[in-house]
Amino acid sequence: YKVAVYHKCSAAHDRAARVESANSVRRLPDGSWYADNFDGVGFIDALKANGHQIAGRRILQVGAGGAGASLAYCLAEAGADEIRLTDIDTVRAGKLAALVGRAFPKCRIQVGEAEPSGMHMAINATPVGMHAGDPLPLDVSRLTPDMTVVDIIMEPAETALLRAAKGIGCRVQPGRPMMDFQVRAMSEFFDIEGKDRGHG
User: Fold this and answer.
1) Are residues 162 and 88 in the same domain?
2) Inter-CA distances, 170 with 117, 147, 149, Å
3) 189 occurs within a structural domain
4) Of these residues, 2, 48, 106, 195, which one is catalytic?
5) Going by fewer Cβ within 10 Å, which terminus of the chain is more open, N or C?
6) SS3 state of residue 96
7) How does pLDDT run across 15-43, given as a tens digit for each residue?
8) Domain limits at 24?
């Protein structure tokens, strides 16, 4: 319902507006609704907190759906030098690449194959890997120990992709930190601690 919810709101943060998707909304004093999307925020903050560099890096991203769209924009915004985007829906991937490229022209983004040759980081932003027997989302035979591999899937905590990457010697990051940082950002969005509320 992220897209449907977004379209019910009268205003939105840029990161929600550019993907036309919201995972958090709040009522404003005038009674209208304001949308935001913390998929990319949580992802980027989690990477940075764990010492993973984004600026100047070449990144393979598999998945151009709802979460993937948010990630691609935020990776470009964070200074990624190049994004190789792949999705089973090549039309969707092409549209996203064009939109991100227009918004962040310093980032070279293009649609390519799900193989990480020449990349610093490989990201799985698809549901592939949630179930036993799922195929690997990218060509792990092209991974090298100097690469970082990230999977946004939270369950299982260690996907087959991450196990394969660890076996090669790659740095890895699972999906849970992304959710943890999303929750932190959402708590600020909803002012859970009441910092901006009137008292008395």
Assistant:
1) yes
2) 14, 5, 7
3) no
4) 2
5) C
6) helix
7) 999 999 999 999 999 999 999 999 999 99
8) 2-37
